[in-house]
Design brief:
With 492 residues, this protein is an alpha+beta fold. The chain has one domain: Cytochrome p450 (Orthogonal Bundle), CATH 1.10.630. It contains 19 helices and twelve strands. Helix 12 crosses helix 14. Bound molecules: protoporphyrin IX containing FE and 2-acetamido-2-deoxy-beta-D-glucopyranose (4 copies). The site of one 2-acetamido-2-deoxy-beta-D-glucopyranose (NAG) has 3 residues, from helix 8. One 2-acetamido-2-deoxy-beta-D-glucopyranose (NAG) binds next to helix 12.
């Protein structure tokens, strides 16, 4: 090595960097024209993100609000074109050139595989087309009585906590959601509310943490480093427990599944309906791919519905006047009886309240896509392969779109106000070809849960909206993952 002088070493490094820049010259040209925090070679904006895991979210929101749209961020050597403006967001999200999920999603694919959320390309396109009918309103409405039954168990179990001290409501809602998702989507009856799913649920929660850690900690993306960390072991157990559970579900459903040419219209769970698809389209999914679809649907539904319902109860506790209005509406539309399908569309104010919660706490605050072809956005050319991030969080707090961006103000969703607003101003379910398929299911489930709880209990919470600190792994949550409320029995 003696004959290698310092000069040679520098020359080699210089050449490597020059080749790297030349190969990515379109990206560097674009980066040069965009505003953003000072970036360093190799490290990019990593120094701007030097903070605790749980502070990353607030840091990202802060950074993206300081520059006009579009801006640039360098995640280490990885460039991202960041959009925080509603008109540009529409152009990206509605385009077929942005249906490829960014490589970040591959860490989610460890347990979601090529399911609908992490998949891309022709397989995603075909599966989405085949599975879309499963999520249409008229199919989803058949799940109503099953969800209601589990929710009534929840209301009963909450009696134990009524008129006592503060508790973490998501714990109870999550177990209820696990049971109804299990019955309506996975097609097995479970008793999580009786404490039988603790292993599965806790392993899932851990898995979300591992996925997120790999997304944000660049070094964990190097497989051989990852293998030596504690995360690897967590991932292995998690995968075994989760996939084992869904494999068993497929075995059970496969046994009872009847292959018919004329499908009857009575209730059938989603897994059974996926087996229907497989009867017709033989290469639709192997058993392993079905496991991926189920894991995807499970985490897409159970986690989101529980989180948003819990946020809603907490806010109704903080804003008693809004809670009174919601309860008044429930009394006039539903009264004392069980909620029925026909009530859903008539709970107009509750609908506005849920939407306002989704505006303040969008489950997916940042969406990352990859350009599958060159794309012209206004005066910027986004090269093929470039990562584009759409910041829903910034759009949801944009003072030009919302009268009171940082307040809990359900009147943002009065029909006459909605009509005047840009259609892409409200994006909790994303939009366009990769938008959420589960929206009708989600609204239905959340309304059943909230109505049933509020019919029985008055909700109280301490603190203010500003006190609620957020973090994100695969979804936005409170920083401590606690949703504290107190409940009092309503006098009938
Ligand atoms: C409040 C509840 C929910 C919210 C806020 C929500 C939000 C979202 C968002 C933002 C995406 C896009 C993710 C991305 O691009 O990375 C998405 C995708 C998806 N969601 Fe939901 N979701 C909810 C409930 C559900 C439910 C209950 C189901 C299933 C029954 C579901 C199924 C899906 C599926 C299958 C996709 C992937 C669509 C595709 O890429 O083709 N979601 N959801
Ligand atoms: C709901 O519960 C009631 C009473 O326990 C039962 O009769 C009914 O069959 C259940 N409905 C469904 C859809 O499971
Ligand atoms: C995950 O599942 C395994 C096997 O059932 C169990 O031993 C472990 O305690 C679970 N992990 C958590 C965090 O619950
Ligand atoms: C499902 O059933 C079919 C036919 O009854 C069988 O060939 C197949 O192996 C089963 N698959 C699973 C996962 O049990
Ligand atoms: C973990 C758990 O509760 N699983 C249950 C799911 O439903 C099946 C079929 O009813 C039960 O056998 C499992 O025990």
């Amino acid at each position: 090595m003696v004959w290698f002088s310092h000069v040679d070493v520098f020359a080699v490094i210089f050449i490597i960097i020059a080749i790297y820049i030349y190969k990515n010259k379109e990206i560097f040209k674009l980066s040069w024209r965009l505003p953003g925090p000072t970036a360093w070679p190799i490290f990019g904006n990593a120094f701007a993100f030097l903070c605790k895991d749980e502070d990353l979210f607030e840091r990202a929101v802060y950074l993206s609000s300081r520059y006009p749209s579009p801006m640039r961020i360098w995640f280490g050597p990885k460039f991202a074109f960041v959009v925080t403006n509603v008109v540009q967001a529409e152009k990206i999200l509605s385009s077929m050139k942005f249906t490829t999920k960014d490589k970040m999603y591959k860490y989610m694919a460890v347990f979601n595989g090529e399911g609908l959320i992490s998949g891309s390309g022709p397989k995603w396109k075909r599966d989405r087309r085949l599975m879309t009918p499963l999520f249409l309103k008229k199919n989803v409405i058949q799940h109503f009585p099953y969800i209601l039954n589990h929710t009534k168990i929840l209301a009963k179990l909450l009696e134990e906590k009524a008129d006592k001290s503060i508790f973490n409501v998501i714990h109870d809602i999550q177990r209820c959601a696990a049971d109804f998702v299990n019955e309506t989507i996975i097609g097995i009856k479970t008793n999580a509310q009786g404490g039988e799913l603790e292993n599965l649920l806790e392993n899932l929660t851990r898995m979300y943490t591992v996925v997120h850690a790999r997304m944000v900690k660049v070094w964990l993306q190097v497989d051989w480093i990852f293998r030596f960390t504690k995360y690897k072991k967590l991932e292995e157990t998690g995968k075994q427990v989760i996939h084992g559970f869904f494999r068993e579900a497929i075995r059970i459903n496969n046994e009872t599944h009847v292959c018919t040419t004329k499908k009857d219209l009575s209730f059938r769970n989603l897994l059974d309906q996926m087996l229907d698809i497989r009867d017709d389209v033989t290469n639709f999914a192997t058993d392993e791919e079905l496991v991926h679809h189920l894991t995807t649907l499970y985490s897409a539904s159970e986690d989101t519905v529980s989180t948003i319902s819990s946020f809603t109860l907490m806010l109704l506790g903080i804003y008693p006047n809004i809670q009174s209005k919601v309860v008044e509406e429930i009394l006039s539309v539903v009264g004392d009886r069980d909620i029925e399908e026909g009530d859903l569309a008539r709970l107009v104010y509750l609908d506005m309240v849920i939407k306002e919660v989704l505006r303040l706490f969008p489950i997916a605050p940042f969406l990352a896509r990859e350009a599958s072809q060159d794309f012209q956005l206004d005066e910027w050319t986004i090269p093929k392969g470039c990562t584009v991030v759409v910041s829903i969080q910034n759009i949801h707090r944009d003072g030009k779109l919302w009268m009171k961006p940082n307040e809990f103000y359900p009147e943002h969703f009065l029909p006459e106000v909605v009509e005047k607003r840009h259609p892409y101003a409200f994006l909790p379910f994303s939009a366009g070809p990769r938008g959420c398929l589960g929206k009708p299911y989600a609204y239905m489930a959340m309304k059943i849960v909230l109505v049933t709880i509020l019919q029985n209990y008055l909700v109280e919470a301490e603190g203010t909206l500003e006190d609620i600190r957020l973090k994100t792994d695969i979804s936005v949550r409170t920083k401590d993952e606690i949703y504290p409320i107190r409940i009092r029995r309503r006098k009938k």
